[in-house]
Amino acid sequence: MRKGTVVENLNAVRARIVACCRACGRDPATVALLAVSKTRPAEDLRAAYEAGQRDFGENYLQEALDKQGELADLADGGLCWHFIGPLQSNKTRAAAEAFHWVHSVDRLKIAQRLSVQRPTQMPPLNICLQVNIDGEASKSGAAPEEVAGLAAAVAQLPNLKLRGLMAIPAAREGAAEQRKPFARLAELLQQLQVQLPDQPLDTLSMGMSGDMEAAIECGATMVRIGTDIFGARQ
Ligand SMILES: *Cc1c(COP(=O)(O)O)cnc(C)c1O
């Protein structure tokens, strides 16, 4: 996509975040914007970076590693890589070595591997547990009733930092309907904060291009926006 367009789109999303926060009485600084750059060429990420964007979300490991190589000159400039796609156990090593965050941990085995494989000279890997908030058969994520047990186990792993919860709700029409699963995820995070007071549980990773405002209204601290920044995917 044309560089100017990426920057215009990015600024429009930033303005929407500010407007939404104003309307619901939140400080815009408490909502981080994750630019979801799956399927996008490195030049699009570079355009966003030049406009101040630092957090990028990727779904496919090899694609992400390729782009990280192309953007290696920016590595010291505060680029922060978030893995947000389904993670198979044979891919955990690359995720543990090349990312700052993994949002899609939904079972203990994956978390254990990430902890063992996280290089010890790197800071702990930031983790969100993915919750299948609508119980959809087609979606990954832990069931809501599994979250407490999974979180307690993940909190014990030395090279991980349990930051919060992530969800991708089923598509819904209208803000009131969209808010329901987000409110449930926020409630689950509050329960975890009580259950595990020593953990840095400060992250609700929720809200995409079509439901960002509803997520912010329900307490999202990180919104994951692809289409509205980089355009429609093929
Ligand atoms: C693709 C993707 C997004 C971004 O979705 P858009 O609708 O393009 O904003 C967010 N989160 C996850 C996990 C994704 O896979």
Structure in words:
This protein has 234 residues and is α/β, with parallel strands linked by helices. The protein has a single domain, classed as Alpha-Beta Barrel (TIM Barrel). It is built from 9 helices and 8 strands. It has helices at 3-24, 42-50, 61-70, 92-98, 108-117, 147-154, 175-195, 212-217, 227-230, and strands at residues 32-36, 55-58, 80-83, 101-105, 125-131, 160-167, 203-205, 222-225. An 8-stranded parallel sheet has the order 7-6-5-4-3-2-1-8. It is globular, with a radius of gyration of 17 Å. The mean pLDDT is 97. The structure holds pyridoxal-5'-phosphate (PLP). Pyridoxal-5'-phosphate (PLP) is lined by residues 36, 38, 59, 84, 168, 208-210, 224-228.
Show the helix and strand layout.
Elements: H1 3-24, E1 32-36, H2 42-50, E2 55-58, H3 61-70, E3 80-83, H4 92-98, E4 101-105, H5 108-117, E5 125-131, H6 147-154, E6 160-167, H7 175-195, E7 203-205, H8 212-217, E8 222-225, H9 227-230
Parallel strand pairs: 1-2, 1-8, 2-3, 3-4, 4-5, 5-6, 6-7
Residues 36, 38, 59, 84, 168, 208-210, 224-228 line the site of pyridoxal-5'-phosphate.
Family: Belongs to the pyridoxal phosphate-binding protein YggS/PROSC family.
Function: Pyridoxal 5'-phosphate (PLP)-binding protein, which is involved in PLP homeostasis.
Protein name: Pyridoxal phosphate homeostasis protein
